[in-house]
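Same chain as my last thread, 204 residues:
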Amino acid sequence: MTSRLIRLTSAAVLLFSLSYILGRAVLAAPAGSEADPFVSRAFLQLYLAEQLSPLVQQVEDLSAKVVELEKRVAPLKARLELRVTLTIGNNVAYIGNKPKTLDAPPYLSDSGRTMLPFRFLGEALGAQVDWENSTRSVIYRLGGRTVTMRIGSPTATVDGRKVQLDSPPQLVNNRTMVPLRAISELLGARVEWDNNTRTASIYP
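reply #2:
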């Protein structure tokens, strides 16, 4: 689409340039002279206008389509810039293309669920993250929703409603680790898993 627009624009510029050059040549020579025995300036302008009109219209139509496509692509680009990616065993995650070093690398729980440090994912998704030491609970607040998880408990609380977890939060080397998919989806994000690279991609 872009290359075709460039070609059409270049052709339009070439024809306009030709019109200018020929127009100057016509003006420089009297009508009916040896330099200009038949063609008048008015005829040349009319001819070029007729030839250029469809081309100009195509350029305008293509330009409008490019603008429309850019509008459609913009939200996708924005989502990619906010995408969170992380890999099992690697303590470097990415938010868009920006690397972020985690307190501890993600790992797979006994139930095969990806676990990661509780604070990183919540903050990457734009949530307010709190730790309640008395109950050993993690609290996420995002978009009017409150999600609470407690270490060792297979049940989370979402706005007062109980939700079962496939894998409960765990304390590993003094780090609180939470199930990636559960907390992502409870906060309204989408998770994709690549089994070949053992990489998870989270889209807000």
